[in-house]
Each structure stands twice: as structure tokens, then as C-alpha cells.
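Recap quiz, item 2
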Amino acid sequence: MGNICPETYPDPFNFNPDRFIKDGKINPEVTNPEAVFGFGRRICPGEYIAVDTLYVLISSVLAVFDVSVPKDANGNPDIKPSFSIGLICHPDPPKCSITPRSDRHKELVQNLLNSDPTNE
Ligand code: HEM
């Protein structure tokens, strides 16, 4: 359970992806949270396909949509993630707004939806 200790990740329940970045690059001094895939002889063999699939999924979404967070009264991002409690703990669905980046992107997505025969 070392990876959720504040000694490893200061302020671990604060959503702060910047904790992994230093001078615009991945900071090798911060532990990689790869333990989610297990370790040793039974380590998850799907780790690379899982990470690469997530990369393709996230970059495809960001290529055509703006994903924005709710703002507080001062116009600052208002992100307070909450988590389920139990043996397996996962983030609750976040509040966010997902809109096409432009009319061109909207048209691209609409054309893809229209050309999908399963989307009648
Ligand atoms: C984000 C996605 C995934 C996570 C977080 C994850 C996590 C894990 C974890 C924690 C284990 C147990 C490791 C251990 O016992 O030490 C495991 C086992 C396993 N995972 Fe994944 N996994 C993911 C995706 C996948 C994918 C995409 C595949 C296949 C394409 C896969 C196939 C397997 C298999 C076959 C095992 C059993 C390995 C064994 O017991 O020898 N996983 N995974």
C-alpha cells in the first residue's frame, strides 16, 4: 500500500497530475503508479495493451472534443474528486462538459456516427 502514502505522493487525495511532471518532462524521481498491474510472476500481461489502448482512446477524444471542468465562483477549475469506499476503490463519475472543438470537429463526429451501420 506504499503508493497511497503521503511519503510517496504528497497530498495523495488531491487531483494533481502535475506531481508526475518536472520542467515539462516526466519526473523520474516520482514513483510510477504501475503497481496497479500487480507485480512479480503474476503481473498483468495486458499492461501494455491496456496503457496503449487508453492512450489511443484519450488522444482520440481530445482531438475532437473540449473536455472542461466546472468552475468555482472565481472562475477557477472546481475539481474535488470523490471515491467509492471498499475493497476496490474507484473514482465517482466526475462532473464535466464535453463539447466539439469546432463546427468542423462536430461535422466529423456527426459524419462518423451517420456512417456507422450499428447506429440506426
Ligand atoms: C487498466 C487495465 C488493467 C488493469 C488495471 C489490470 C490489472 C491487473 C491486475 C492487478 C492483475 C493481477 C496481477 C497479480 O496477481 O499480481 C491482472 C492480471 C491479469 N490481467 Fe490485467 N489489468 C488490466 C488490463 C488487462 C488486459 C487488457 C488484459 C488482456 C488483454 C489483461 C489480462 C490479464 C491476465 C490474463 C491476468 C492474469 C495473469 C496471471 O494470473 O498470471 N489485463 N491484471
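Residues 36-39, 42-46, 49-50 surround protoporphyrin IX containing FE (CB under 6 Å).
Helices lie at 47-64, 103-114.
End of item.
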